[in-house]
Amino acid sequence: MRQFACLCSVHCVHAEAYARFTQQAQECPPKATHKTHFHLLIKCEISALYLQSIDGEGTEAIKHAIDIGYRHIDTAYFYKNEMEVGTAIRDKIETGVVKREEIFLVTKLWNVHHDPGHVEPICRKQLQHLGLDYIDLYLMHMPVGYKYIDEETLMPVDAEGVLELSDIDYLDTYKAMEKLVEAGLVRSLGVSNFNSEQLTRLLENCTIKPVTNQVECSPGLNQKPLTAFCKKHGITLTAYSPLGRPKPDVQKPDYIYSPAVVDIAKKYGKTTPQIVLRYLVDLGTIPIPKSSNINRVAENFDIFDFKLTSEEMAVLDGFNCGERLVPLNLIKAQNHKYYPFAIEF
């Protein structure tokens, strides 16, 4: 079975899930909902410093990912690499490697642009950065908006260094995003970092249902309750930071070096990160680990030729402790009404 996917994160969607993932589009890519393969999403969350330090490597990593079969690409305005992503995609289209309708591009509305009047202009600017005519899936990056200062200020802070937030209702922002679909700029909509109560409120008030909720999800925070909630409402759960991230005093999360996980990896001839990614796939999520390393990109893609047993799944379940590596503390400290992690899920 051939597998299609995308860059810098692992994101697996079976055919049925992929069809559901794109069902809100006004005009889904012609072949997208008829594929009988797994679909893997790679997250192009490459820092601006990385792109500036190693000229062109971000673009080359994306090109390589497309060459080996990735077809889903996740980026964002905040990552400051939409131009690199667009360059890679256009190059592969122009050279005949892929057609535009075979690429599933995801990008995001950043928090300083929650004002409904900002949504369409910034989306058009992102399309200019990408050099493309439409975005397949457009996410609201967070339910909490930040104060808009100017186009260059993505993290507005006051004289005391406190993050400046806004009180704009995410429903108003989402309604403006719905107009992007009507205008043909965007095919489908989703959200990120929303809790179950926020999703419920959104579902009760939206015209176009979100197809995914992208949240932190790993063995340490396996998000089973939120995944079940999303599944009940026909929403996929996309998992960012699926492999965790190094803590200040350790090189990698415990489950990466766990002897029990190492044994499972040896059984299948895989690496422990591949076991973790397969675990998240088997939970019904879409993991999107970030990487610009060509070898790692290929490794993340190679997780579809095995399936974990229930006993092996239980081993990974044992690492769930509810710890967030991305707790959004700058928002939490202000007790903002839309802070998403104040409830269990």
TrEMBL record:
NADP-dependent oxidoreductase domain span: 59-319
Pfam family membership, one: Aldo_ket_red
InterPro entries listed in its UniProt record: AKR, AKR2E, Aldo/ket_reductase_CS, NAD(P)_OxRdtase_dom_sf, NADP_OxRdtase_dom
Active site: 79 (proton donor)
Residues spanning the membrane: none
Residues annotated as site: Lowers pKa of active site Tyr: 108
Ligand binding (substrate): 141
Any one GO MF annotation of this record: oxidoreductase activity
UniProt cross-references to PROSITE patterns, sorted A to Z: ALDOKETO_REDUCTASE_1 (PS00798), ALDOKETO_REDUCTASE_2 (PS00062)
Database matches in PANTHER family: ALDO/KETO REDUCTASE
Protein name: Blast:1,5-anhydro-D-fructose reductase
